[in-house]
Automatic annotation (TrEMBL):
Residues annotated as domain Mannitol dehydrogenase N-terminal: 29-277
Family: Belongs to the mannitol dehydrogenase family. UxuB subfamily.
Catalyzed chemical reaction(s): D-mannitol 1-phosphate + NAD(+) = beta-D-fructose 6-phosphate + NADH + H(+)
Pfam families: Mannitol_dh (PF01232), Mannitol_dh_C (PF08125)
Family matches, as InterPro entries: 6-PGluconate_DH-like_C_sf (IPR008927), 6PGD_dom2 (IPR013328), Mannitol_DH (IPR000669), Mannitol_DH/Oxidoreductase (IPR050988), Mannitol_DH_C (IPR013118), Mannitol_DH_CS (IPR023027), Mannitol_DH_N (IPR013131), NAD(P)-bd_dom_sf (IPR036291)
UniProt-recorded name of the protein: Mannitol-1-phosphate 5-dehydrogenase
Any GO molecular function: mannitol-1-phosphate 5-dehydrogenase activity
BP GO terms, sorted: mannitol metabolic process
Keywords: NAD, Oxidoreductase
Top-level taxonomy: Bacteria, Bacillati, Actinomycetota, Actinomycetes, Propionibacteriales
Gene3D superfamilies in the cross-refs: N-(1-d-carboxylethyl)-l-norvaline Dehydrogenase, domain 2, NAD(P)-binding Rossmann-like Domain
Enzyme Commission (EC) number: 1.1.1.17
Source organism of the structure: Kribbella turkmenica
C-alpha cells in the first residue's frame, strides 16, 4: 500500500498513471471555486493532460472552498500534496487509474479569506473558474434576475465586510485589481446552466451594482465571461471506490474520483488575456456554444431527471439499473426524440439520433454506479432550467408534452418523501422544506406543487399542461410509476 503523496509517486505500480512533468515547475494561473468530483474529473484532468505534454505549466490550479463542508477537501488534498487519483470506469469492469497533478494548492476561505484574495489579485491569476452548482448563481427562476435574499450575499453587501460568498470574493478581487491597475481575470463558469457565461456576467454585475455601480460598469465592460458546455458523468465517490483503488492498485487515496470514459468540453474562445491551449487536448473551441449546451441540457441532463424520480419510485437505486430496463429506455428515447430534440437548433458536427442512443449506453454503464439519489438532488435548481424550457417551447409550437409532464409529476410524487413501498425518501434540495410541505397535499390539492410561481411561472394556469399533469399525478398515486409508464 502506498499513501498518495508527491514523495510516494515513484512507488506506485506501473498500472497507475502519474504526472510526467515536474510539479515544482508548475505556477498558479487559475483559481477555481468548487473543487468537487466533476472539476477534478474534467477541467483539472484536461490541464493535467496538457502538462504531461509539456504545455500549460503556468496554469496550475489553486482550488478554493467557501462552504463549511469544503474543509474535508482541504484536509484531504493537503495531506496528499494536492494529488488525487482519477479512476475511469469502463463498462467491461476495466479500471484506469491516473494520478492528477494540476491542482497545486487548495485554500479554505473561512480560515484565511485574505489568502484567497491575494491569490485572486495576483497578476499571475488570469482565469477564475466556477463549478458552484446551478443554485450558486442566485438566479430567480422566473424573472431571471439576481435573487439577493441569500444571507451570504446580504452579509457581503455590508460596508467593510470580509467576503464570504463566491460572488463576494469575485467582486472584491476585481475591485482590488482595478484599483491596482491589474487587468481583470476571465470568469469561466463550468456549471450546467444555459448560457452559463452570460448568466455569470449578469448575476455578478447585478451583485456588484448593489455595492458599487461604477465598479459594476467596469466589470460589464472589461471582464470576459466565456460560455461553455461540460460533460462527464461523475458519481459521488463511494467507500467501495477507495477500497478498490487500494486493493487492485495499492494506492491509498483519501478522496479519489471515479468517472465514465466519455468526456466533452465545448468552450467559447472569449478570454480577456491568454489561456491554456485547450484545443490541443480535445476541447472544442467555438464561437457559439449555445447549440451544444442546449443539446446537453435538454437531452442528457433532462433525461437524468426523466429517469431518476420514476426509477426511484419503481424501486431502482442506480441509473444503470433503469437504463437496462427496456420500458424505461423506450420512455427516455421517446422523450428525447419527440420532446427534447424538437426544441434544439442544429448542432454542428453532431448526429442527434446517434447522440441520444449514446446517452443510453453511457447511462447503462454498470461500473459507474451513479445513484438515483444524486440525480434527484437539488431538483428545484434543475427542473426549471433543464426541462421546463422544453415544456414551454413544445406548448408554444403545439407539440406533445406528455413525457415531460410525467417527469414533473414524478418529481412532485418523489417530493412527498415516501416511496411506493412505504419507505422514507431523503429529499435533498435547498428548498426541501417548502417542496415537501407542498407535496404532502398532492392528493387533496393536485395543483399545489406546481403553483409555486418562483419555480413554475404561469404553467399552473395553462390548461393543457394542467390537464396532463393532474392525470399523470393521479396515475402515479393509483397504479405507480411502472404501470404508469406501461400505460403511456
Amino acid at each position: 500500500m502506498t499513501a498518495l503523496t508527491a514523495a510516494g509517486l515513484d512507488a506506485l505500480g506501473n498500472e497507475v498513471g502519474r504526472p510526467s512533468y515536474d510539479r515544482t515547475a508548475v505556477r498558479p494561473g487559475i483559481v477555481h471555486f468548487g473543487v468537487g468530483g466533476f472539476h477534478r474529473a474534467h477541467q483539472a484532468m484536461y490541464l493535467d493532460q496538457l502538462m504531461n505534454d509539456g504545455k500549460a505549466l503556468g496554469w496550475g490550479i489553486v482550488g478554493v472552498g467557501v462552504l463549511p463542508q469544503d474543509r474535508r477537501m482541504y484536509d484531504v488534498l493537503h495531506a496528499q500534496d494536492c494529488l488525487y487519483t482519477l479512476v475511469v470506469k469502463y463498462p467491461d469492469g476495466t479500471l484506469e487509474p491516473r494520478v492528477i497533478g494540476s491542482i497545486v494548492d487548495y485554500l479554505f476561505a473561512p480560515d484565511d479569506p485574505s489568502a484567497v484574495l491575494d491569490r485572486m489579485v495576483d497578476p499571475g491569476t488570469r482565469i477564475v473558474s466556477l463549478t458552484i452548482t446551478e443554485g450558486g448563481y442566485h438566479v430567480n427562476q422566473v424573472t431571471g434576475e439576481l435573487d439577493a435574499s441569500d444571507p451570504g450575499l446580504a452579509a457581503d453587501l455590508r460596508p467593510g465586510a470580509v467576503p464570504g460568498s463566491v460572488f463576494g470574493f469575485l467582486v472584491e478581487a476585481l475591485a482590488r485589481r482595478r484599483a491596482a491597475g491589474v487587468a481583470p481575470f476571465t470568469v469561466m463558469s463550468c456549471d450546467n446552466i444555459p448560457g452559463n457565461g452570460h448568466v455569470a456576467k449578469k448575476m455578478l454585475t447585478s451583485f456588484a451594482r448593489l455595492k458599487d455601480p461604477e465598479l459594476a460598469d467596469w466589470i460589464a465592460a472589461e471582464v470576459r465571461f466565456p460560455n461553455c458546455m461540460v460533460d462527464r458523468i461523475t458519481p459521488v465517490t463511494a467507500d467501495s471506490d477507495r477500497a478498490a483503488l487500494a486493493e487492485r492498485f495499492g494506492v491509498e487515496d483519501g478522496w479519489p474520483v471515479v468517472c465514465e470514459p466519455f468526456t466533452q468540453w465545448v468552450l467559447e474562445d472569449d478570454f480577456g488575456g491568454d489561456r491554456p491551449p485547450y484545443e490541443d487536448v480535445g476541447v472544442q473551441l467555438v464561437e457559439d456554444v449555445e447549440p451544444y449546451e442546449l443539446m446537453k441540457l435538454r437531452l442528457l441532463n433532462a433525461s437524468h431527471q426523466a429517469l431518476c424520480y420514476l426509477g426511484y419510485l419503481a424501486g431502482y437505486r442506480y441509473a444503470h439499473e433503469v437504463c437496462q430496463d427496456k420500458l424505461f429506455v423506450d420512455f427516455l428515447l421517446g422523450y428525447m426524440a419527440n420532446e427534447g430534440a424538437p426544441t434544439l437548433p442544429p448542432v454542428p458536427g453532431v448526429d442527434l439520433d446517434r447522440y441520444q442512443h449514446q446517452l443510453i449506453e453511457r447511462f447503462a454503464n454498470p461500473e459507474v454506479r451513479d445513484t438515483l439519489a444524486r440525480l434527484c438532488a437539488e431538483s428545484s435548481d434543475r427542473i426549471p432550467k433543464w426541462l421546463l424550457p422544453v415544456v414551454r417551447e413544445q406548448l408554444a409550437a403545439g407539440r406533445e408534452i406528455g413525457r415531460s409532464v410525467l417527469v414533473v409529476a414524478s418529481w412532485a410524487r418523489y417530493a412527498e418523501g415516501v416511496d411506493e413501498q412505504g419507505q422514507p425518501i431523503e429529499v435533498v434540495d435547498r428548498l426541501r422544506d417548502k417542496l415537501v410541505e407542498r407535496a404532502q397535499h398532492n392528493r387533496d390539492d393536485p395543483l399545489v406543487f406546481i403553483s409555486d410561481p418562483d419555480l413554475f411561472g404561469d404553467l399552473a394556469s395553462n390548461e393543457q399542461f394542467v390537464t396532463q399533469y393532474k392525470a399523470a399525478l393521479k396515475s402515479l398515486h393509483e397504479i405507480g410509476a411502472r404501470a404508469t409508464l406501461e400505460a403511456l
